[in-house]
Design brief:
mainly alpha, Serine Threonine Protein Phosphatase 5, Tetratricopeptide repeat, two-stranded antiparallel ribbon, binds adenosine-5'-diphosphate, binds magnesium ion
């Protein structure tokens, strides 16, 4: 079972990965955007970490809704509301339980990813974060490490795509040949699930 501690570890591991990869995310965004994705997310997840430490929420659902609210209010840009929606909807879908199963998390994360699609109007293949998130949802039913591998592959597969949503879409054909920054950060979020699982010691989700 996955408790509030697991979800807290997930968010901390994501913050550490975003911090580590911030320069790379910004570099990717400088090729097909406005060079702020790493800075945006670094600020956002630092504020998530601070809020979680201060409020120490006691259920998985509240950990994620709190994290999502922080992202909405601190990240800005396109990705702030989208990541905020992802975590808030996932958290809301988990309800008030103090522990959830990996299957419940997979289902809730699927609802969160669907909400990202609704908010941003993007579909698979549009060269957005969804290209990492959608394959991760499918693979989450198998294991966290399968989800990580699927998200990584999805992010890599954005390179040859033409951007159809967000700032990169303004570039048209010139967006081809670059990896999408949001798909790259989404893969970090998914990889952090596997890290949180290992750090818990029980291997509860995979
Ligand atoms: P901005 O584009 O406002 O500067 P960021 O640089 O923080 O915001 O984030 C850019 C990322 O947001 C893109 O790489 C893409 O993955 C994601 N994104 C942009 N628009 C959408 C959308 N409509 N749906 C899903 N993801 C999107
Ligand atoms: Mg940007």
């Amino acid at each position: 079972m996955l408790d509030a501690d697991f979800f807290h570890r997930w968010m901390i591991a994501t913050a550490a990965a975003v911090d580590r990869e911030a320069d790379r995310l910004t570099e990717l965004d400088s090729a097909i955007g406005d060079a702020d994705h790493g800075t945006n997310l670094k600020r956002g997840f630092a504020s998530v970490t601070a809020a979680l430490e201060k409020e120490a929420p006691q259920t998985p659902g509240v950990v994620l809704t709190l994290a999502g609210r922080q992202l909405v209010s601190t990240v800005g840009g396109a990705s702030g509301p989208l990541y905020g929606t992802l975590l808030r909807r996932t958290g809301k879908s988990l309800g008030e339980a103090s522990e959830v199963t990996a299957a419940q998390l997979a289902e809730a994360f699927g609802a969160g990813v669907a909400a990202v699609g609704q908010l941003g109007g993007a579909q698979a293949g549009d060269k957005t974060m969804l290209d990492a998130l959608l394959p991760a949802v499918d693979a989450l039913g198998v294991s966290f490490s399968a989800a990580r591998d699927a998200a990584d592959a999805g992010a890599l597969a954005t390179v040859p795509l033409l951007a159809r949503k967000g700032r990169a879409s303004y570039l048209g054909e010139r967006s081809i040949g670059h990896q999408d920054p949001g798909a790259t950060s989404a893969a970090l979020l998914v990889a952090a699930l596997a890290e949180a699982d290992t750090a818990g010691g029980e291997g509860s989700g995979s």
